[in-house]
Write a structure and sequence with these properties.
The chain has 114 residues and is an alpha+beta fold. 17% of the residues lie in helices and 16% in strands. It is extended and about 55 Å long. The model has no long low-confidence stretch (mean pLDDT 90).
């Protein structure tokens, strides 16, 4: 996304764009983006597990903005949507639900959250 040293972004593409796109990618929109920090590397399932389990991230309102906290509560999420909690484990653990199957949690993969 071209930023041009400002916080104003131009987003979207025309309806006749020659490649596939999701419905929310079409049209034109200008947005102001406030300053933020981002990690140099993607967050792994292991790092996010620490947030979910050790930091109680899904139970701690201070980690969320108002809209996100409301959405999380509306969806009744206690952990990421694609994680499946293993029952009967001594330590809290999860599997990962992929498109075609549920697999043991690959802790070194980037986390997939919505």
């Amino acid at each position: 996304i071209p930023v041009n040293n400002t916080t104003t972004l131009e987003l979207g593409k025309p309806a006749d764009f020659p490649s596939y796109g999701w419905d929310n990618e079409y049209g034109h929109r200008t947005m102001e983006v406030p300053p933020f920090e981002a990690s140099k590397y993607m967050i792994t399932n292991r790092e996010y597990y620490d947030f979910v389990v050790h930091a109680k991230g899904y139970q701690t309102k201070e980690y969320w903005d108002e809209n996100s906290w409301g959405w999380k509560n509306y969806r009744n999420l206690q952990y990421p949507f694609f994680w499946e909690k293993k029952e009967g484990e001594e330590e809290e653990s999860y599997d990962l639900r992929t498109i075609f199957e549920t697999i043991p949690m690959p802790m070194n993969w980037p986390v997939d959250v919505t």
